[in-house]
Amino acid sequence: MDEERNNLYPVFLKVKNLEILIVGGGNVAEEKLTFLTKSSPDAKVTMVSPMFRESTIALANRFGVEMITKKYHKRFLKQKHIVIATTDNPKVNIQVYKDCRKRSKLVNVADNPPYCDFYMGGIVTKGNVKVAISTNGKSPTTAKRLRQFFEEVIPENIDDLVKNLNEYRKTIKGDFEEKVETLNEFTKGLIGKKEVANDKD
Questions:
Q1: Is the dihedral of CA 111, 126, 152, 34 positive or negative?
Q2: What region, left, alpha or beta, does residue 110 occupy, with left being phi > 0 and alpha being psi -120 to 50 degrees?
Q3: What's the CA dihedral at 103, 7, 146, 158 to 10 degrees?
Q4: Of 37, 61, 89, 150, whose CA is between 20 and 30 Å from 161?
Q5: Which residues form a coiled coil (predicted)?
């Protein structure tokens, strides 16, 4: 038997350029909005639901999220690129999925992998550095633990390193391959120095 592997292709979306719709206004909707705005405060989000929790309204107001207090209808999919269905009614969620498939829109039905074009994984952000973690939709808890691990092991000054290397890259002469080789050698030295420093502890 072949070993199961993760065939998902990771991408980093510029969500400030995309229109996102969250269908639902309960706990799961708030959870998705929380993760989304934490990672991408500039995300363009609309929510539609007959009701919204007070804490969801407060969060939505903080990030300029449009809220529509109505039942879901396929007309709300117009001009949306990404849709997240979070209602506690499976029929509604599956209808959202079907409507999105007909209109070639990316859709995620929360906690229902067969009805997902994508998963919202664990995310670690330190300045310009972002690490996304996927368990292939199998274990959000494992993704959470890995996120905590990476938050601890990625150094706090990683953003300074990224910025400095970006400036240094601009000064390197030669073609693309020569620049890559120079940067590879330079970063090897930095990693080596860190390992030596750790050995003295």
A1: negative
A2: beta
A3: -90
A4: 37
A5: none
Going by their DSSP bridges, the two strands 19-23 and 82-85 should be labelled as parallel
Tell me the per-residue pLDDT of 122-162, one tens digit each, with 9 for 90 and over.
Answer: 899 988 999 999 998 888 889 889 999 999 988 888 888 88
Contact partners, residue 107, CB within 8 Å, separation at least 6: 82, 83, 84, 85, 96, 97, 100, 101, 115, 116, 117
Closest to 86 in 3D by CA, of 132, 60, 49, 128: 49
Q: How far is CA 169 from CA 36, 94, 102, 114, 158, in A?
A: 32, 49, 45, 44, 16
Separation CA 52–CA 98 (nearest Å): 24
Distance of alpha carbon 161 from alpha carbon 127, whole angstroms: 11
Residue for token pair 């539609």: 48
Q: How far apart are CA 119 and CA 20, in angstroms?
A: 14
List residues bridging with 47 in a β-sheet. Answer: 22, 67
- Chain centre to alpha carbon of residue 81: 15
Distance of alpha carbon 189 from alpha carbon 172, whole angstroms: 17
Q: Which long-range contacts (CB under 8 A, 24 or more apart) does 88-94 make?
A: 88/24, 88/26, 88/28, 92/23, 93/23
Q: What's the maximum distance between 2 C-alpha atoms anywhere in the chain?
A: 63
